[in-house]
């Protein structure tokens, strides 16, 4: 009897140990993924309770600079490259043994007015774009932490047409291969991505992205991946089979995919029902990536509600992350674990 009790206590303790020791990156690796990661930003790095979790390599095997590698941060005036904050993020990845997703070379937002309002002709703007991408990507070339770059960010409107910005107006869609070729020359080992939102399930925008990838492939332009941002809403996540089909539509083109900016926001205040639905939503999304071998990893767009971009971008919404504003794990955290475990 005693022996039996000891044995079952050991089994029980073993079960508990498995549950307690599950961390996001470890579980992602066990599921065959390269990483589970998070975005982070320089002002947050003074918060030691936050950085204690950020540095934990069994939670996060990858980081993305939320802002400090964007154009306004890295080339605020023409030819004046400033990498102070970007270097801090890259160094953090290196020190912690995490992969780095560079973000990003060309985007219509956080673009300094010297670019958007410079009235440059096509040849000059093309040269400005090439210099920007190759200097930015080249800065981190060969550093073992560099995994990938979001070379082109958010090129499409929701209807699948190309977003009108200074690059499209001046260079037409040629700005896309120009940026990819510049990035490829600057770091031939980095995986080069195009990243966008509202391409998580089939529709005009997802189709447009697939058409673009096909044409880039046909013209032998270096392109290795599509980033699906996955800024989602609690209770409005498509079914897992819809998500899987869409991810597979991309991987069928001979590229990889990654979930690059995951969060699942809710209308505040949070309730236990909303938090429970959010847990399910995280499981649905993570499980879709787990089911597709070409889905290499998942990045949350910061891991705590304390630093989430959501309340600033969507009035009345928030609590989108797996850790709450007090850095306590929410049910969403277990939802992610469950998604990887299938
Ligand atoms: C990472 O966090 C977990 C708890 O979530 C903890 O058990 C583990 O010791 C931490 N690892 C490091 C290296 O701090
Ligand atoms: C822009 O490029 C597309 C092909 O990518 C082409 O169909 C279209 O005619 C071009 N537009 C202009 C104004 O040159």
Secondary-structure topology with pairs:
Elements: H1 2-21, H2 24-30, E1 35-40, H3 48-54, E2 62-65, H4 71-74, H5 84-96, E3 99-106, H6 113-116, H7 122-139, E4 146-153, H8 166-171, H9 175-186, E5 191-196, H10 204-218, E6 225-228, E7 231-233, H11 240-251, E8 256-267, H12 272-291, E9 295-300, H13 310-313, E10 317-318, H14 331-341
Parallel strand pairs: 1-2, 1-9, 2-3, 3-4, 4-5, 5-6, 6-8, 7-8, 8-9
Antiparallel strand pairs: 8-10
Helix pairs in contact: 2-14, 7-9, 11-12, 12-14
The structure holds 2-acetamido-2-deoxy-beta-D-glucopyranose (NAG) (2 copies).
Q: Sheet bearing the most strands, described?
A: 8 strands, parallel, barrel
| Number of strand elements | 10
Regions with little confidence, pLDDT below 50 for 5+ residues: 1-19
Strand content: 15-25%
Organism: Auriscalpium vulgare
Keywords: Hydrolase
Protein name: Glycoside hydrolase family 10 protein
Task: Give a description of the structure.
This protein has helices at residues 2-21, 24-30, 48-54, 71-74, 84-96, 113-116, 122-139, 166-171, 175-186, 204-218, 240-251, 272-291, 310-313, 331-341, and strands at 35-40, 62-65, 99-106, 146-153, 191-196, 225-228, 231-233, 256-267, 295-300, 317-318. The radius of gyration is 21 Å and the shape is globular. Helices cover 45% and strands 17% of the residues. With 342 residues, it is an alpha/beta fold. The chain contains 14 helices and 10 strands. Mean pLDDT is 95; it is low at 1-19. It has one domain (24-341): Glycosidases (TIM Barrel, Alpha-Beta Barrel), CATH 3.20.20.80. The structure holds 2-acetamido-2-deoxy-beta-D-glucopyranose (2 copies). The site of one 2-acetamido-2-deoxy-beta-D-glucopyranose has 2 residues, from loops.
